[in-house]
Specification:
about 270 residues; Glycerol-3-phosphate (1)-acyltransferase; seven-stranded mixed beta sheet; 9 strands; about 50% helix; binds ligand LOTZAFKI; binds [(2R)-2-oxidanyl-3-phosphonooxy-propyl] (Z)-octadec-9-enoate
């Protein structure tokens, strides 16, 4: 029995020691902590969402947003947001952003507008308590392996956006990417905006490579710049305009990504790919 009491005590001594001496340990510890803490937060949030809304409801995103906002401090991250005024747009719109890591959830919750939820891969629904709270928050799940299914879910979403006056956040790269640049954009977000005839608001996260390097197993403290760009109108556009709309958004976001990542790199050391 006495020995059992020693275990937490030993851990309390060993963990800070390893945190100071091994960057690989810090990497795994922070990653484990992030997932575990989000799971715990979701476990607490689930009954709150059910009590507030009785089930799946986009208003639950307010609870989720509130619960996630402090997590950045626990991981040693800080956000510098610019362009807040561009989110002061009435009615429905589509937010698009680049996607580097599951840490993007922290930036998303930092600026998530009211009545805004996201499009996510369907596999996320199986992520335990996190999956359930995502469902309660009205997240729209798509099957990326079946384009026809994904297209029909997104067509329904375009209708819901207008009927229920909601906003949708889409990651047009379609997958996480940390290659120091943006991946070519998938078309779904642009069809969605054109079908609903709503504006697109691009949001750019600066490169994480000055604090988070998956291959090198580094997860330091750092600053993430979040730049909200002016809205792009889609009124009067048709599906014929989707390709040029996607190209225009890509060019604007890529320029902003290189700009804000470069300014972080200059102040914090080189970006490593
Ligand atoms: C308290 C704790 C709480 C924790 C809470 C945590 C909250 C978490 C929230 C955050 C979750 C974040 C999750 C992020 C993700 O899961 S990212 C991955 C999923 N998202 C996406 O994939 C979106 C982007 N993808 C697309 O938009 C794709 O286009 C897709 C619809 C999926 C289709 O895929 P694919 O076939 O690979 O793409 P293409 O773009 O090449 O399209 C093929 C052709 O189809 C045409 N197309 C596409 N979409 C449509 C449409 N909606 N309507 C009509 N036509 C469409 C497209 O134009 C192509 O045809 P052409 O080549 O142009 O002829
Ligand atoms: C039953 C237990 C299952 C455990 C699963 C753990 C799930 C993670 C839990 C908490 C992490 C915090 C919230 C993360 C939400 C992030 C969603 C995300 O970033 O998904 C990746 C997706 O965009 C693209 O996927 P791919 O890059 O194509 O792959």
């Amino acid at each position: 029995m006495d020995v059992l009491w020693m275990i937490p005590l030993l851990l309390l001594m060993i963990i800070p020691l390893l945190m100071c001496t091994s960057s690989t340990f810090v990497f795994y510890f922070k990653k484990f902590f992030y997932v575990a803490w989000m799971m715990v937060l979701a476990l607490i949030g689930i009954p709150l969402c059910i009590l507030k809304s009785g089930g799946r409801d986009i208003e639950n995103m307010r609870i989720i947003r509130f619960m996630v906002r402090h997590v950045k401090y626990l991981l040693g991250l800080r956000f510098e947001v610019s362009g807040w005024e561009h989110l002061q747009t009435e009615g429905p719109y589509v937010v698009i952003s680049n996607h580097q890591s599951s840490l993007d959830v922290l930036g998303l919750m930092e600026i998530l507008p009211d009545r805004c939820t996201t499009i996510a891969k369907k596999e996320l629904i199986y992520a335990g308590t996190v999956g359930l709270i995502c469902w309660l928050g009205g997240i729209v799940f798509i099957n990326r392996k079946k384009t026809s299914d994904a297209k029909s879910v997104m067509a329904d979403a375009a209708k819901t956006m207008l009927d229920d006056q909601i906003r949708l956040w889409v990651f047009p790269e379609g997958t996480r990417n940390q290659n120091g640049d943006l991946l070519p954009f998938k078309k779904g977000a642009f069809h969605l905006a054109v079908q609903a005839q709503v504006p697109i608001i691009p949001v750019v996260f600066s490169s994480y490579s000055n604090f988070y390097l998956r291959k090198e197993k580094q997860f330091k403290s750092g600053i993430i710049r979040l730049k909200i760009l002016p809205k792009i109108e889609t009124k009067g556009m048709t599906s014929d305009d989707v390709a040029s709309l996607s190209d225009k958004s890509f060019d604007l976001m890529r320029a902003a990504f290189l700009d804000i990542s470069d300014s972080i790199t200059r102040s914090n050391g080189p970006v490593r790919h």
